[in-house]
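Late entry, written up from scratch paper. The run itself happened at the end of the previous shift, but nothing got recorded in the book at the time, so transcribing now.
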Amino acid sequence: MLWVSTRQRYQYGDPDWDRYIAWIGLPHLREVRTLDAGLNKYVEECGSVYCDLSDVDSVLETLPRPATDHEYYLLGRLLEAESADSIDRFDFLGCDLSDETMTSSVVNCGPWKGRLAPFVSRLNSVGLLTVADARRVQELLPVEWGADEPHAAAQIWALYGRTS
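Output as recorded:
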């Protein structure tokens, strides 16, 4: 499964950034890239378009083009392999986790505690995980948050970015 959208960066200096960083407990971050549209808002409310990899270029033609350095294309691919394959003309950003609501279990479900705490310092510069760490966190979420917590039953998404 793969989708692509045009998003706004969420970064230091944006409205509510300081409040968000204090709540999530990630003071080392200066930018967040995530599948979560609550943090990386859609440009012109374009939404995500689901497609095959072979259709990405034609889908990009239908989406709003990034007009400033504050906007970018975000591509998400459900991670099913042991690694995040490269995608032409896109940079691998890292891995996010989410249930079907597309709420990020990594950067939008509160600070990580317990066995998840060591992974906080391992988030990359945009708040994403390596493939190996994402797989381990996926196993730990139901243990730490409880099997009944919807955001604990998360799938791993490899995220890729492109500016034009």
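The first strand starts at residue 2 and ends at 8.
(Scratch paper discarded after transcription.)
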